[in-house]
Amino acid sequence: MLRAGIVGLPNVGKSTLFNAMTRSRKAQAANYPFCTIDPNVGVVTVPDERLQFLAEMSKAAKIIPTVIEMVDIAGLVKGASQGEGLGNQFLTHIREVDAIVQVVRCFEDENIHHVSGSVDPLRDIEVINTELVLADLGSVQKRIEKTQKTARGTGNDAKAAKVELALLERLLPHLDSGKPALLLEVPTEEKALFKSFCLLTSKPTLFACNVAEGDLANADANPWVQKVRQYAKEHLSTEAVVISAQIEADLVDLSEAEAADYLKELGVSESGVGGLIRATYHLLGLRTYFTTGEKETRAWTIHQGDTAPQAAGVIHSDFERGFIAAECAAYDELKRLGTMAKAKEAGKWRIEGKEYVVADGDVLEFRFNV
After folding, report:
1. Which of 180, 191, 218, 313 could lock 320 by a disulfide, CB 3.0 to 4.6 Å apart?
2. DSSP letters along 167-225, please?
């Protein structure tokens, strides 16, 4: 299972957010730095309103959503790349995740200490990004020294080392200019090699803007949120999602109906966490297809670009090995037409072969023979 790490400075709401996403109180959340030391790991249900319609259409007995794994990582401080705070532990834990959700504080509260003494989300982002780049610089420099020795030799090992060295020597000035590895243009044939470097700044990232309870309904007007969104777009071509960790903490113990009433009173229709989970799911390169029938309606996780046989293999390896064809309809067409029978009548229920690339929201049935 792919996992995303929640990172940020101390006291920005990471552990509170983790508890809300996992619907638990696993992570300790307190008003002092380094409240989290060992990372907390939890499985997060990906909210998807499409499941409800499909279950009603099929009169399914149960609904099974898809999930991802989230990791709450200790707060980082300036100098982490040199071992300050819990720097070495922090960086190791980030190295083990597949994507980063960077939480930034976009609210004032004199009762909640900020490690820098004031609220400035762009400064906070730069602190974290600088430490990650510095850590990557150190890793690349060490790898260059090691690879240079191998490249001086002869044979296949030396040939491979020269290719690696060329990539590392392009990467070094890129990082030295303060740019994350993610933005380096890497040819397709070198992507696997690049990935093997396990660089912190090569991981896809999005931002979670933590706003005050009273600001959630009008978050677009929050100047800090506006600045973070602009930064995310211009510097990383990514997005910034608005959440209120405190509201999410209050929702943990409420039923669905009580939570809906509470959010309505605040002037919002959905918890910010739902949008953040979905954004993280897509950030990881994951997509969803569905199977539905009287027994169950289920969401299945695949990677973007997966073919029909690969999607079938998620259910069982026999399905992929003996794949014949996939019967398929797009969710939007089913929703528009209302029933499977009408989709078939309209010619929207089609047969796809081995080369078909499954789209997010496809509803599938597989034909196979083993």
Report:
1. 313
2. HHHHHHHHHHTT--GGGS---GGGHHHHHHT--GGGS-EEEEEE--GGGGGGGGG-HHH
